[in-house]
Every structure is written in structure tokens, then in C-alpha cells.
């Protein structure tokens, strides 16, 4: 596996007596989109602020391309592009003028690089319009272009989908995936809504109360979402449970007069046939989709995350 673009090592933050971040350890790799997911107040912004040197680290470290943000700040931060608060824009200037303005503050940014970042975020058509006329999604993309000017190897976006409509989210998703794939940039996106980031991420780390409680590869978990939760009203229910456990070779739950199983869609007819074949009385079958969202809610142990 490639050398990590960023490493979090026992990262902690204490404010007053409160331990807000309780020791985070994980790596992010070049070309990967990493989702940092958690309910409001979980500690995402605090972690991101430490990653980019905006907040002092209480204990542990953040290593960016081998350089410590604590002891080699200048070298480390060169590798980072970030939008932590709303991107600063001059509304009366065109998108391009905004980029040129920011480029002047960074040594060595050429006009070619400006054109390149405009293409990377798909703003070619609108780049000469005033930024004040941009939609929220376009403003976000201009912010990303700005963060990419100095060719960072890691891009950190705090809640980039916040407030965007579905088409805005789709566009951001498309350009973020492009960046990771074409430029080999490692991207970290934070969010409190799984549905907004699951399609753009390779892995998702779930944070709750300042701790990582799970890191899932989205590709694996998406396969699991093909599993359906099936509720079957059947009599006698306890015997049916035992029968299903023996054929499915896994535990089957019972809820009053129903058994609840988790199977692939194509397995459902077999299961029903088997029950009927064994003379169980089947009164009804309901199929529920088990989504990653359910899994997320289960993991964070709440019914609602907003
Ligand atoms: N300066 C501070 N002093 C005391 N507590 C703080 C301070 N900053 C943040 N916190 C607390 O730390 C916890 C984590 O906050 P943080 O903003 O990092 O969460 P978050 O996951 O980014 O949530 P959100 O999406 O709401 O910003 C919260 O409980 C918050 O109240």
C-alpha cells in the first residue's frame, strides 16, 4: 500500500477539563476519499482544526506526508488544501479574478495552474461571471479550486455538502471523485449525513463523542446493503425460527408473530417455499431494505442524528 498522505497518531484535545477528542488513530491514503462522519458535536470540526494547525493539539500528532503539523508546520501545511469555514470570496469579482487574487498570495502559481484548477472543478463556463451570482454549489467548487491552487496532496473539506440541493451534491461528488482519481489527492470530507457522502467516499470513519467507533470501506458495506431485512408472519413462530436458523445457518430474530431474517433478495422465494413445504402457516411477508444509514444509526446508537 502507498505511503499514507496523512496519519493521525493518538490525537487528543482537552478543553478545560473536558476531553473533546479522545485519541484518534487512522491513516488516509493518496487517491482516497475519506468520509469523516458523525452527529453534530461529535468532534469533527475540532479534529479538522487540529489537522490544519488552526487549533493546538493537546496530545498526539498529525503527520502530513511524513511531516509533523506540530514541529514541522511550514512543511506539513504546504501539502494541505482546506475549506474549514465558508470559503472567502469577493462577490463583486469574477470567479477567475478571485482565483487570481488568491494566487498572488502564493508564490509560484502560474496562469496555467489557474486554468487547470478551473477545469478540475468544472467552472470553465461560469468563471468570468461575478462570484456573487454563483449558486452555493458553484461557490463551493470555486472554494475547492482555490484550495487546490498550490497543488496540495491532501484536501480537507468540512461539511462540503451542507446546504446543497441534490444536484449540487451530485456535482461536488463528481468533482471530488475526479480529483482523487486524476490528481491522486487524498480527500477528507466531513458530514453529519451519511446519505450525502456515501457515494463519494471510499472509506467512512464514524466519530462519536470524540472517538472513532468504526471505519468501514464503503464498497464492502454497499454490498451488505443488498441484504434485505424480511419480516415473515408465520405460525408456529418459534419452530419456524429454528427451522430457518438451520437452513440459513445464522441467528433469526422473532418479533411477536414474525420472524425477522436478513437475506439476499434472490433467497427470499427459497425461504418461503421451505416454510410452506414444512407446513408452516405463512400469513404475510414484508421486505425492508437494510441501508447503510440504518447501520450508521445503529452504530451511533441514536434514532435521529440531526
Ligand atoms: N472552545 C470550546 N470549549 C468547550 N467545548 C468546546 C469548544 N469547542 C468545541 N467544544 C465541544 O466539543 C465538542 C465537539 O465539537 P465539534 O464542533 O468539533 O463537533 P462537530 O462534530 O464538528 O459538530 P458540528 O457538526 O456541530 O460542528 C462539542 O461537544 C462542543 O460543544
UniProtKB/TrEMBL annotation:
Gene3D superfamilies: P-loop containing nucleotide triphosphate hydrolases (3.40.50.300)
Residue span, ABC transporter domain: 6-234
GO molecular function annotation: ATP binding; ATP hydrolysis activity
Keyword list, A-Z: ATP-binding, Nucleotide-binding, Transport
Highest taxon in the source lineage: Bacteria
Pfam family of the protein (one): ABC_tran
Family: Belongs to the ABC transporter superfamily.
Protein name: ABC transporter ATP-binding protein
Protein species of origin: Aquibacillus koreensis
Amino acid at each position: 500500500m502507498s505511503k499514507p498522505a496523512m496519519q493521525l497518531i493518538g490525537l487528543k484535545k482537552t478543553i478545560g477539563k473536558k476531553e473533546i477528542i479522545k485519541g484518534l488513530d487512522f491513516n488516509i491514503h493518496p487517491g482516497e476519499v475519506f468520509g469523516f462522519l458523525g452527529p453534530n458535536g461529535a468532534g469533527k470540526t475540532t479534529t479538522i482544526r487540529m489537522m490544519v494547525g488552526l487549533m493546538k493539539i493537546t496530545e498526539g500528532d498529525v503527520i502530513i506526508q511524513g511531516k509533523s503539523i506540530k514541529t514541522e508546520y511550514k512543511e506539513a501545511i504546504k501539502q494541505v488544501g482546506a475549506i474549514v469555514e465558508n470559503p472567502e470570496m469577493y462577490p463583486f469579482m469574477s470567479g477567475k479574478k478571485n482565483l487570481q487574487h488568491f494566487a498572488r498570495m502564493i508564490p509560484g502559481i502560474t496562469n496555467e495552474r489557474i486554468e487547470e484548477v478551473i477545469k478540475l472543478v468544472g467552472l470553465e463556463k461560469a468563471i468570468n461571471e461575478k462570484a456573487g451570482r454563483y449558486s452555493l454549489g458553484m461557490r463551493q467548487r470555486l472554494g475547492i479550486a482555490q484550495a487546490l491552487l498550490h497543488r496540495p496532496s491532501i484536501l480537507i473539506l468540512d461539511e462540503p455538502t451542507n446546504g446543497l440541493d441534490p444536484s449540487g451534491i451530485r456535482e461536488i461528488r463528481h468533482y471530488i471523485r475526479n480529483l482523487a482519481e486524476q490528481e491522486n489527492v487524498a480527500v477528507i470530507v466531513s458530514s453529519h449525513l451519511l446519505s450525502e457522502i456515501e457515494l463519494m467516499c471510499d472509506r467512512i470513519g464514524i466519530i462519536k463523542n470524540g472517538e472513532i467507533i468504526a471505519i468501514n470501506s464503503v464498497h464492502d458495506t454497499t454490498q451488505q446493503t443488498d441484504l434485505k431485512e424480511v419480516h415473515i408472519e408465520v405460525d408456529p413462530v418459534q419452530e419456524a425460527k429454528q427451522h430457518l436458523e438451520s437452513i440459513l445457518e445464522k441467528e433469526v430474530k422473532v418479533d411477536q408473530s414474525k420472524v425477522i431474517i436478513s437475506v439476499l433478495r434472490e433467497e427470499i422465494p427459497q425461504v418461503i417455499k421451505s416454510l410452506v413445504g414444512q407446513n408452516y402457516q405463512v400469513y404475510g411477508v414484508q421486505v425492508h431494505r437494510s441501508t447503510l444509514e440504518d447501520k450508521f444509526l445503529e452504530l451511533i446508537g441514536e434514532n435521529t442524528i440531526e
